[in-house]
Amino acid sequence: MDERKRKRHRIFQRIGRIFRMILVLAIAAGITTALVYMSRYYRADETAQAYLDGQADADGGTSPVQIVDIEQGLFLDGAGTENALVFYPGAMVEYTSYLPLLYKLAEDGIDCFLVRMPANLAIFGKNKADRIIRYNPYEHWYIGGHSLGGAMAADYAARHGEELDGVIMLGAYPVKTLSGDLKVLELYGSEDGVLNMEKRQEAEKYLPRNAVTEVIDGGNHAQFGNYGLQDGDGEARMSAQEQQSVTAAKLEEVILAGA
Predict the structure, then answer these.
(1) Cα–Cα distance measured from residue 74 to residue 68, given in angstroms and rounded to the nearest whole number
(2) Of 55, 97, 153, 210, which has the most beta carbons under 10 Å away?
(3) d(Cα 88, Cα 224) in Å, to the nearest integer?
(4) Are residues 156 and 82 in the same domain?
(5) Are residues 125 and 1 in the same domain?
């Protein structure tokens, strides 16, 4: 190899080393950014934690509901035996934030499966309902969720309509066509500052004719759960407990109708 070729070879080697170094730094920066992002999720507040700690229910009494750890998250086992709801949490929200809402449902006869999502993002676990539905003997199955969790629940329902009785979307909208055989409830607060209303309106084409859409007057986006204020959200004109009581009543109208 003459001197000119050796110089060219050394130059290419240096370029290769520099390129590999840049690539490693870029990957490291990407991983760091992702880890920082995933660590900044909304955490369940003390009210939700009290349910997890096995303290008395919100009314200070006793309840037949048992909260059981399962592979996919938590199972709220109440007095019901026929109706079950699989619930997907909102994006970057600690899944236990929804215990107060689901506890109300379980008390009134709707057993609930609260799903823990990878990185607190339902888009990475939208098929988590599969094993829950497959291995638990309920006559009527519903899937629902909040925000991104509601959209992913609707996505699941669009692909597994024959296995479900209905789908519940809280502060969310569908991204695929839902079967007319499903009971569909779309519920959001009048003060919701997070839900994209333009996209929600465009998504009405995916709703069946029998879908029920209702607005909680005074409710906002975050108060379907118990995780505090959410960036960009509107100020609610009711407490989280009040909003969840209204929500539970609406869900029960849909799920327990004719049961």
Answers:
(1) 6
(2) 153
(3) 12
(4) yes
(5) no
Separation in Å, CA 141 to CA 83, 85, 98, 102, 145: 6, 6, 19, 15, 14
Which residue spans within 38-134 are E strands per DSSP? 66-70, 73-77, 83-88, 110-115
Query: What's the structural domain count of the chain?
Result: 2
- pTM of the shown model: 0.84
Pairing of strands 83-88, 73-77: unpaired
208-237 pLDDT tens trace: 999 999 999 999 999 999 999 999 999 999
Find the domain containing 5 and state its range.
1-40
Indicate if 93 and 36 belong to the same structural domain: no
Containing H/E element for 187? Answer: strand 183-189
* Residue whose C-alpha is closest to residue 140's, from 250, 246, 245, 258: 258
User: Running DSSP on this structure, what letter comes out for residue 182?
Assistant: S
How many C-beta atoms lie closer than 10 Å to residue 19's C-beta? 10
